[in-house]
Amino acid sequence: MQVFGDRHGNVVHLFERDCSLQRRHQKVIEEAPAPGMDAATREAICAAAVRAAKAVDYVGAGTIEFIADATEGLRADRIWFMEMNTRLQVEHPVTEEITGSGSGRVATARRERRALAQTPGRTDDHRLGDGSTALCGGPDQGLPAQSIGTLDAFASSARRIRVDTGVEQGARITPFYDPMIAKLIVHREDRARAIAALRDALDDGVVAPLVSNAGFLWRVLGDAAFQQGDVDTGLIERNIETLCARPEPSSEELARAASRLIGTPGRNPWTSQSGLRLNAPTRREARLTDQFGRHYVTDWTDEPALDDWPADAETSIDEGGEHFILHIARAQGTGGGGAADGAILSPMPGRIIAANVKAGDSVSKGQKLLTLEAMKMEHSLLAPFDGVVKEYHAQEGGQVSEGMLLARIEPA
Prior knowledge:
Blueprint: E1 2-5, E2 11-15, E3 18-23, E4 26-32, H1 39-55, E5 60-68, E6 79-85, H2 92-99, H3 103-111, E7 126-133, E8 135-136, E9 145-146, E10 149-150, E11 153-155, E12 162-165, E13 172-173, E14 180-188, H4 191-204, E15 206-208, H5 214-222, H6 224-227, H7 235-238, H8 240-244, H9 251-262, E16 286-290, E17 295-298, E18 315-319, E19 322-328, E20 343-345, E21 350-355, E22 362-363, E23 368-374, E24 377-382, E25 387-392, E26 399-400, E27 405-411
Antiparallel strand pairs: 1-2, 1-5, 3-4, 4-7, 5-6, 7-14, 8-9, 10-13, 11-15, 12-14, 16-17, 16-19, 18-19, 20-27, 21-23, 21-26, 22-25, 23-24, 25-27
């Protein structure tokens, strides 16, 4: 609940926001009005917010938070005051969209002693906001990891959407600041249209080559429980493996990508890769690999092309909020270290807070090798199989960069 109090003792509430969709107590998607809240309950919490601000003679913009037990639906007698933040919070653009007033305009109106109606705005409209961050995470990591580097591509052609951001294409994302790079806010006539518009915006946007959480947000918005308005703070954790699992590109997009990678050198029968085989069915098979080391086998399409159209060195697919960078797979493989060959790499920049083994130790599958602290979270790196620690470069208190070799396990 956002409120504003002036020096004349006037306090208004602007609108309630629902911030139940969280992961590890961090807000993921905010919306207004809160789904499932009736007019009587809304009026009760709005009045409570105003009373709380008046009780302390509050001056300025602030946010009053409540926590609800919705096991029997949202009811005024099952909602409790939690805290007041004497500042605007990250979800305040949702309030601005629902009221039609920016927070700065509200402050100006109060200083000039103009009346501001104590009404919650139109409840038939719906606003949604999410934070797109340079994060990568999944059930294999357990915790999100910050993606560091330069934003070579950062764009969206989605219409009727508000984008609040402090970066631009070409900016460098560092580990020293909050990883949020943009906040997307939409308002539509009803909740279903707002959800669809926000999913379209996430699907349309491009963040590359850094890994963002746009695909994760796209899947959260498509979750059946969320779409029905059955939202609580545990929704994401209950479905974490499905929501964090990065899907593969569709077969249609893979076929188009293969066409771009292989090239279509016109209609010259001597150079065209038509897939013709004597006394056998035609076969046009491409083997692709993405930046995550996953391999795909696909046909390719007959897209119109100019003569001697050169093959691309790499191409990309943007689908479902995910960005895939694809190459033609080589016989020698993708190289690099990974858990399969016993190489334990740092998944992100951070600090070693515990070194649990040393070179020469025998370890069993799943045994903790070290603990990395990053983004105020602890990440345990485990042995991928039974074996012996052949290399160990983790020192307690040491700083490490993303991709640094921390240990190598030789199979038993």
